[in-house]
């Protein structure tokens, strides 16, 4: 016989005496006691450690969430503060730009007014200087013209006029006649041009 057939025969003889599905009572009691000790050990040592670990992890996660929410709230507050400062800086820059534009216009107006005053002063001085020079030239021309006219009159008459007061009167009459004829000539082109 072979080994397998011997094992099968021994199993068949043994199966008649006991059921394979039902364990022996001694093994069943040892198994139940061992399982009870294992469960008791689990609840006595392992469960508190698991609960402590779970509580620490929950606290870490909740603390991390709370810190993240606090950081987010702080970041949001900083963002709002930054936006407010940016808006304030923009408003300040706009105000400074507007003030600079107003000051620029004031400076330009003041410079124009000053330039106008200087032009008016220069014009007044020029006119006064022109009038003084004209008066000087007219006086100079009168004396020269009077001398020339007297000399001419002496040559025409053939003798020198005796009284100096007659010289002055003659010169003044001659110049007045020249002025009258000069004014009439100046008025004629001006009148014909308009």
Automatic annotation (TrEMBL):
Source organism superkingdom: Bacteria
Record's bilayer topology term: Single-pass membrane protein
Pfam families on file: ATP-synt_B
GO cellular component: plasma membrane; proton-transporting ATP synthase complex
InterPro entries registered for this protein in UniProt: ATP_synth_B-like_membr_sf (IPR028987), ATP_synth_b/b'su_bac/chlpt (IPR002146), ATP_synth_F0_bsu_bac (IPR005864), ATP_synthase_B_chain (IPR050059)
Molecular function terms from GO: proton-transporting ATP synthase activity, rotational mechanism; proton-transporting ATPase activity, rotational mechanism
CDD domains: ATP-synt_Fo_b
Transmembrane segments: 25-44
Keywords annotated in UniProt: ATP synthesis, Cell membrane, CF(0), Coiled coil, Hydrogen ion transport, Ion transport, Membrane, Transmembrane, Transmembrane helix, Transport
Subcellular location: Cell membrane
Coiled-coil stretches noted in the UniProt entry, renumbered to this chain: 65-99
PANTHER family in UniProt: ATP SYNTHASE SUBUNIT B, ATP SYNTHASE SUBUNIT B', CHLOROPLASTIC
Protein purpose: F(1)F(0) ATP synthase produces ATP from ADP in the presence of a proton or sodium gradient. F-type ATPases consist of two structural domains, F(1) containing the extramembraneous catalytic core and F(0) containing the membrane proton channel, linked together by a central stalk and a peripheral stalk. During catalysis, ATP synthesis in the catalytic domain of F(1) is coupled via a rotary mechanism of the central stalk subunits to proton translocation. Component of the F(0) channel, it forms part of the peripheral stalk, linking F(1) to F(0).
Entry's family note: Belongs to the ATPase B chain family.
Subunit structure: F-type ATPases have 2 components, F(1) - the catalytic core - and F(0) - the membrane proton channel. F(1) has five subunits: alpha(3), beta(3), gamma(1), delta(1), epsilon(1). F(0) has three main subunits: a(1), b(2) and c(10-14). The alpha and beta chains form an alternating ring which encloses part of the gamma chain. F(1) is attached to F(0) by a central stalk formed by the gamma and epsilon chains, while a peripheral stalk is formed by the delta and b chains.
Stated name of the protein: ATP synthase subunit b
Organism: Pseudofrankia asymbiotica
Protein encoded by which gene: atpF
């Amino acid at each position: 016989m072979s080994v397998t057939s011997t094992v099968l025969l021994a199993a068949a003889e043994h199966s008649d005496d006991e059921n394979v599905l039902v364990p022996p009572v001694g093994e069943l009691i040892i198994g139940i006691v061992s399982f009870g000790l294992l469960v008791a050990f689990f609840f006595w040592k392992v469960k508190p450690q698991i609960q402590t670990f779970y509580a620490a992890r929950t606290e870490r996660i909740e603390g991390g969430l709370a810190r993240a929410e606090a950081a987010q709230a702080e970041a949001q507050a900083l963002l709002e503060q930054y936006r407010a400062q940016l808006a304030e800086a923009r408003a300040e820059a706009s105000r400074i730009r507007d003030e600079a534009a107003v000051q620029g216009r004031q400076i330009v107006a003041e410079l124009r007014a000053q330039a106008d005053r200087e032009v008016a002063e220069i014009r007044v001085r020029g006119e006064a200087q022109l009038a003084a020079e004209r008066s000087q030239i007219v006086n100079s021309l009168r004396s020269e013209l009077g001398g020339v006219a007297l000399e001419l009159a002496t040559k025409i008459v053939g003798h020198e006029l005796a009284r100096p007061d007659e010289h002055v009167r003659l010169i003044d009459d001659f110049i007045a006649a020249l002025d009258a004829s000069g004014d009439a000539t100046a008025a004629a082109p001006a009148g014909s041009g308009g």
